[in-house]
Model the fold of this input.
Amino acid sequence: MDEEVSVTTPFSGNAISRQKDGCAFSIVDEDTKNYFVETGFDFVGGFGIIQQGPPVYKAANFDDAIKQILAKGTDTLFMADSVQELADKTGIQVNGLKKTIDEYNRACDSGRDEAFGKKPRYLRPVRKPKFYASKRTAPDPGALEGIRINHLTEVLTKDYRVIPAFTRRAWIRRATFTVMSILISCPVTLWLCFEYRAYGSRKCLAVCKIKPLVAARIFGG
Done:
């Protein structure tokens, strides 16, 4: 996946969730690692509404940090001297890994990523040992999934019949804050969340016969 797309969590989250065991791996070689250490990352880490700490621009103290992590033991970070060793450590099927790396390296050589459309300036081959892999699980996809509802956020049975006095109001409120993490990159998802929250709130008012002022105090609206 193109790194420009992967930072948008609805895209990366849904793509990774479809992979075996719901995970994916980011793999770089020694040359790319050195580029991150000396020049810096193409995409600044630590940005976003809910992320903590200052932005991270370079992979400072990378070698010392990875040695400490590996010494403590981890199942999400791997270092290897060959593609075969990397496959053994990560559990990736070796023939598929070699094929993927070969295809990606050809795209780097030609300057054209026909599979994912990755921009040429981000195409860096995976050739020189050591090889580094980090395991990624799916982030919040920003998809409003779960129980079935209609356009008024009324909960439905499997036969699409409304369950009286039962709405997704509370769940949608929680989802509102969950989706805030993708405010910058996915405004449509955020808009949908607020829309459903509004529908659910109106339904609650009608069912519970609560006055708007009281509802505002209860729901924080």
